[in-house]
Amino acid sequence: MAYKSASEQPAGFRNYIEKVAIVGAGGRIGKFITEELLKAGKHKITAITRVDSTSTVPAGVDIKRIDYADQASIVEALQGQDALVITLAANAPPEQQTKLIEAAAVANVPWVLPNEWGAEISNAGLNKDIPLLGVEARYLEQIEQLGKSSWIVVTCGFWYEYSLSFGPHTYGFDFKNSTVTFFDDGNTRINTSTLQQCGRGAAKLLALKVLPDDANDGSPCLAHYRNGSVYISSFRVSQVDILDSVLRVTGKTLNDWRIEYEPSTSRYKAGVEAYEKGDFVGLVKLLYSRVFYQDGSGDYEASRGLQNDILGLPKEDLDEHTRIAVQTAQYGVGPANPSHF
């Protein structure tokens, strides 16, 4: 596809995304993206799922089953799609995304939203220190080298309710014991998004027109973000801000909580050591503590700006989503173990 304007394209060119294929439509973030795509009512949505999957999808979503051992089945499932959205668990075999990207190229899928729904992948320091980001960068290179698809990463930071309810290894909050570990002084701000906001961001992005209407059209379109990132966020907060919110929604006071302190650099090193010994919790620990470094790595709003307004994303209430996280942590609704991260 030539990235000029819609008026310069051949007859029959559609300046919008019609067909969207999503991998992981019933997963932790995939279900929110699917729900928001359905709400928009602008797309034909197909869930790409394994032949042995028992996951369910909402009404109005087509299903195509694939076998990762049979590349032809993946290509067939992606034929005619305008966009491929990939959402896979962190512990999914890495070759799955490789095969999806290769199949998208063979099937001539123009747009791919890769399995990167979190920290800023273009941050050199994070890329160097966080193993997952380095791997993700190679997938982007693969898409470009194949030369058939363009990619857009939705940078949304950590998932707020999920991370807060997960336990002390993420945002440092141990609700069972009313203890919080502040990284450094607890005042480092990062961007974080609710899962629903992540879903809205992806759906709003795919609702944009593909190209400018003509040379004078400066309105948002997918081509503006080709092979780059879109930055969205629900909140720009510190651990101190989060604790204040927890106190408001629970009616507790600082006297009801024990506050401990740990340098983010020391916490990161401990996470690396644990991960190198095969402890998956170490990966979670190093990931979160590194983003909370005092170098601004987690505050992409300050360094990059946000596309919230361009995409028409709503402002959210911090306490409302803190309440959800607290209830999840208290009643055991959240993930049972780190392998679900």
Written description of the protein model:
The chain has helices at about 30-40, 70-80, 95-105, 125-130, 130-145, 160-165, 195-205, 240-250, 265-275, 280-290, 300-305, 310, 320-330; strands at about 20-25, 45-50, 60-65, 85, 110-115, 150-155, 160, 175, 180-185, 190-195, 230, 235, 260. It is of the alpha/beta class and about 350 residues long. The strands form three sheets. It has a seven-stranded parallel beta sheet with strand order 3-2-1-4-5-6-11, with helices on both faces. The protein has a three-stranded mixed beta sheet with strand order 7-10-12. The two termini are about 35 Å apart. Mean pLDDT is about 95; it is low at about 335-340.
Quick synopsis:
The protein has about 350 residues and is an alpha/beta fold.
